[in-house]
């Protein structure tokens, strides 16, 4: 185990004694519930009457980069006496320090070395591993997950990765770079020339929605061609992304495409919602009434009918 992850794990081993349980990192520990259950089981096995415990789980493990260093604060979940846990965690050595979010919240381990790492020159776009690590550090804080939170230098570097990085780097950067309102033409055309492969290799939760938004904002005449291609592809990255884009665009001319997308299996709920939303706007009717009539007229597949039934009952939220 390397980097700051290794240092934190070593600290946990030192405090894991007496009535204090510090669970070692485990990629199989999925969430808080599993961590608390595991800590109680360890305390029972050690015959600890009144235990105190700390752990983190794999859903927060993303804060470590490829070198094992923190890109943001590591949330530490706990049980037992809050003051005792705080006092024990406060013994963590530099460059770490503890942020206490109170008896009702988690603790957080932050690294004072992070600021210095973030001041290093941006890696070359061709160095894919370094690019991924830097993007993870750059976008770790919530306020840095939108273009408004990025400096001009950060925006320029993300654009350079999209323009000149290899496929793996482009695929990792596209989620962020495509959001830049004034993304330069070189970067945009690099994306446009290979968008199908880039999105096919991007993380699974990255949809083409924001790419379609960018095409629409540029009034790019290739938008309909891209939508046609998205509709032909089976992956939710493309079909789902197109459905979300059309749901939010909500134009009358999208009704036919939304209906086709809504008939696909597995059902794309955003397409069903989009069709109902647009149909209601065109007819000047309530979305619940439109969904109820679509159900009675049998306009959609059985799978899509389940989404229609929810809309008929609750409306579109």
Topology, element by element:
Elements: H1 3-15, E1 20-22, H2 32-45, E2 52-55, E3 74-79, H3 82-89, E4 96-100, E5 107-111, H4 114-118, H5 128-139, H6 152-164, H7 167-177, H8 185-201, H9 209-217, H10 223-232, H11 236-249, H12 255-262, H13 269-283, H14 287-297, H15 302-314
Parallel strand pairs: 1-2
Antiparallel strand pairs: 2-3, 3-5, 4-5
Helix pairs in contact: 5-7, 6-7, 6-8, 7-8, 9-11, 10-11, 11-13, 12-13, 13-14, 13-15, 14-15
Structural write-up:
A five-stranded mixed beta sheet has the order 1-2-3-5-4, sandwiched between helices. Strand 1 (20-22), helix 2 (32-45) and strand 2 (52-55) form a beta-alpha-beta unit. Helices cover 55% and strands 7% of the residues. It folds into two domains: 3-116, no CATH class; 207-317, no CATH class. It is globular, with a radius of gyration of 25 Å. The two termini are 45 Å apart. The longest helix has 17 residues, at 185-201. With 317 residues, the protein is α+β, with helices and mostly antiparallel strands. It contains 15 helices and five strands. Helix 6 packs antiparallel against helix 7.
